[in-house]
User: What shape does this take?
Amino acid sequence: MVHCYPRGAPGEAGGHLSIHLVNHTNARNAKVLFEAIVLCRADAEATAAGVVVAPPCKNYHASSVFEYPPEGSHRFPWPRVVSATDLQQHCAVGGHATVVCGLAVLRHNPIPAPPSTYAADAAGLLEARRKFGDPDAAFAVGGRTFDVVRKVLAARSAVLTAELDGAEFGASTFCAVLLYVYCDRLPRGNECGCPVTIELVRDILAASDWYKLDRLKLLCARRLWDGLSVETVSKTLWYADTYRCPELKSLCIDFLTVGDNFKNAFSTEDFGWLIQNSPSVLDDLRRRFEAKNA
Assistant: This one.
């Protein structure tokens, strides 16, 4: 439900149109896109008359993407959409203003990302210098050199220091692992030397399995689920099966049982590659189809 307060809601500073989106359901973890547009007077009059407006005019809008949390507020406010003065002078027609609202529930991501352990992990760094001290190790990966602090690696991953030399990952993948170790997040833009593609996220998932960074693995799984399609599902399913991510594997199999997804994915070259490299997936898929049709 949308609540509009022309001069501000109770408890707000006032003097502005305030718009609140209120959830009266029991929905949880719903990702929502909401936009409200306050039409200027010319647009509002044209809308009422059913004509097209030629001269340009300024509309006012508020928009946001947010998630209803498991616990917490059911009300999301936009307290300063337009001043009451501008609302009266530019938008009001016969004492009324027109507010056009749109809401879309975005694709739900059912893979839970556990809470960050960064603060707890950092407690193991008390012996290091302030701000981790100077780098005391360097790793050469894919022609690039990464300076690191051994105690940081040891605090964040029990196997990272011991098994680092045994892993064979590209420079961008290794950069992404270090970025997570130090900054607790996935890469953005080109900060690891290349765009964050589906292929890179798959490689990061594989690296997170090698280094036993379980939270990083689930962050990758969430990103891969968001980009899942009939073109990407086969390779993503193989990575989920090979690198022990049952949450993502189950969702990929579910995806293939919906509508024409299996038929369309079956015709791709990657699906043939999947069957050759992970034939047990066919048994999992068959059982899921049987359970769905039972």
In short: Residues 280-293 form the longest helix (14 residues). The first strand starts at residue 2 and ends at 5. Strands lie at 2-5, 16-22, 31-38, 60-67, 75-83, 99-105, 137-141, 144-148. The chain has three domains: 2-105, 114-223, 228-294.
